[in-house]
Amino acid sequence: MTALQHLLDEERPERPSSDVDAPEISATDIAVIGMAGRYPGSPDLDSLWDNVIARRDVIRDLDDAALRALAVPVSLLSRSDLVRAGGQLEDVDCFDADQFGIDLAELALMDPQHRIFLEIVESALQNAGLGVRDPAVVVGVFAAAGPNRHHLEELLPLLRLIDASWDTLLPTGIGADHMVSRVAYKLGLDGPAMAVAATCAGSLAAVCTAATALIDLQCDVAVAGGVHLTSPRYLRRGPGTTSADGRCRALSADADGAGMSSGAGVVVLKRHQDAVDDGDPVLAVIRGYAMTNDGAARAGFAAPGIAGQQAAVDQAQAAAQVGPGEIGAVFCHALGTPLGDAIEVGALRRVWASADRPARTALVAPKTHLGNLDVASGIAALQLAILAARAGTVPGNLHFSTPGALLELDGSGLTAQAGDAAWPSDLRRLAGVSSFGVGGTNVHLVIEASALPTDEEWAAAVLDEPVPLLLSTRTAADLRLFAGRLAEHLERHRPALTAVSRTLLTGRRVHACTHVVWSRSVDEAVAQLRAVANDPAPALDHTLPTMPAQSAGPQRVPLPAHPYRRIRIPGPTSVLQPLIDAGGAA
């Protein structure tokens, strides 16, 4: 349903019957209908969850050769305060230029964060079944981006060598405002396109801003998230601020500071009632959110304030109409700085002191698994919370010994631990997500998991008639790759096959290479898709199948994105050297 229809229709359709314990859909409920992410050691969100549950350390230690390859100045290599570790994304210098129609010269000058974010947004829209633009649906994009180190460290020094007014050469690939506008331009998104700046709270603030835009009917669908790209090394500022080995030991007695990392994530949002009416895949629901600032009630500009953090959590829970005793886990900001962690938990203790029922809420520190993602920290925490709540598993904290003494958890109803735990069976799968920024911005969300669209009767049943699974990619090699990726997804998630068919037929663009698999069950589809993946020359179909009849259950389900054919993007020198030479620069 579009925003225009909302304004014209005074009556909403009757809500379908549901379990008596399920809460009513509120006009302010926001559904997460798709998401995508890239994190250290995790090219997608399935691998992120696998790494978290397997307790894999994704922070990499680097030797001198690796640091020199990353253009780290030789003068830094001998410094004793250089921490040679961090979280890295793979192939940050690669991009599918053909897919997005951007020439190499423009890409060479563009902040790599912009390239990463553009791919992530398209992947998230495909995941939501919105890979084909509907001009009647207004889509907005809201995002935060980290500092443009590409500009500061590579581009600007070259521009200054040019014997001209170099500032006129600045490309439209530098600022975060250009990033969201480029996404809107390349993907045809005609709703609000807004860059959100709130330091480390940026990406979660972008989610809140997007939710408000949906509630205010500024758009029908909103894409929100953030990206942060940094070099996997840093100079340690001292104990208690930055980690000595690049690992984040948040909430732990041996916490010694934050370690730096890179990542990008996006969620696709829709008004909850609209998502239900339209048959969208609902991964989770944002029940309430709040943003506050510490104001002057803190020790200094960069210091966190306990009252402001408490207010954000209180207000978000009030908006969600839940109490602290109903929250199964809080996915904390928790940097691993002993004082900062203690202030954050102190604010939570104040909120949990008002619980009207005994609480047993787990504190989860995503940065122990991923490092400090700066502006992308909040979106990573939100995505991890959604994955955990849907799986019914509360992940433990990595690099964790015992709770820090300053946390004072005894008798608070809050716990922190290393091991995973089952979500309490007597609680709704409600989770809190926090993200706080230097300067005092505090953001907190309350989310609730939706039932996984993998009802055993749908997944295990053999359909009376086979349904078509349309595979359509730009090349035969991509077709084989996508077939294998889809087979893995179906085997892992076992969604309703009719919904898979409808999603592929309506939610993906048709490309030059198409192949149709006809299947009556998930198991049969997996076997057929693997056969396509292993076929060096899969047969191509030129007639598109018809839509299967609508059945009970979801009409669309989350599916993996099509593969990208990335190529290495040259550095800015390749573009600017002729201008430097023409200017007579040495």
TrEMBL record:
GO terms for biological process: DIM/DIP cell wall layer assembly; fatty acid biosynthetic process. It comes from the Bacteria. SMART domains: PKS_KS. The keyword Magnesium does not apply. Residues 1-23 are annotated as: Disordered. One of its GO terms (molecular function) is fatty acid synthase activity. One of its GO terms (cellular component) is plasma membrane. Residues 27-449 form the Ketosynthase family 3 (KS3) domain. This is Beta-ketoacyl synthase N-terminal-like domain-containing protein.
